[in-house]
Design goal:
Elements (H helix, E strand, L loop, with lengths): L2 E5 L2 E4 L4 E8 L7 E7 L6 E7 L3 E5 L7 E6 L4 E6 L8 E8 L11 E2 L3 E6 L1
Parallel strand pairs: 2-11
Antiparallel strand pairs: 1-3, 3-8, 4-5, 4-9, 5-6, 7-8, 9-10, 9-11
Length: 122
């Protein structure tokens, strides 16, 4: 049974930091790309970042470049998203997804998990 469990969200003031975790199970973790996505109220899902097997980071969406860092711990089957200098516009539900090819379009991903809410107050 494939599971992707995102955690670590919460309420933070602008300028603060959070670290999100995506714990994966039920598939061969090292064979899959893991993408982080976010969806703000009333908006379409947005690809935030993606990490491929071999710790190859394929992209960061422009608004988070220099502030967010994606990383992977194969031993724990977990991918992290370190978010620094958070802004109110980062407020969204963040979730992770797995796919052999990766990329910024969540509709192409094989598996998606439930999200974790990040709220950034001004």
């Amino acid at each position: 049974d494939v599971q992707l469990q995102a955690s670590g969200g919460g309420l933070v003031q602008a300028g603060g930091s959070l670290r999100l975790s995506c714990a994966a199970s039920g598939f061969t973790f090292e064979d899959y790309a893991i993408g982080w996505f976010r969806q703000a109220p009333g908006k379409e899902p947005e690809g935030v970042s993606c990490i491929m097997p071999g710790n190859i980071i394929t992209y960061y969406t422009e608004p988070v470049k220099g502030r967010f860092t994606i990383s992977s711990d194969i031993a724990k089957n977990t991918v992290y998203l370190q978010m620094n200098n958070l802004k109110p516009e980062d407020t969204a539900v963040y979730y992770c997804a797995a796919d052999r090819r990766g990329g910024p379009i969540v509709q192409y991903y094989d598996y998606r998990g439930q999200g974790t809410l990040v709220t950034v107050s001004s």
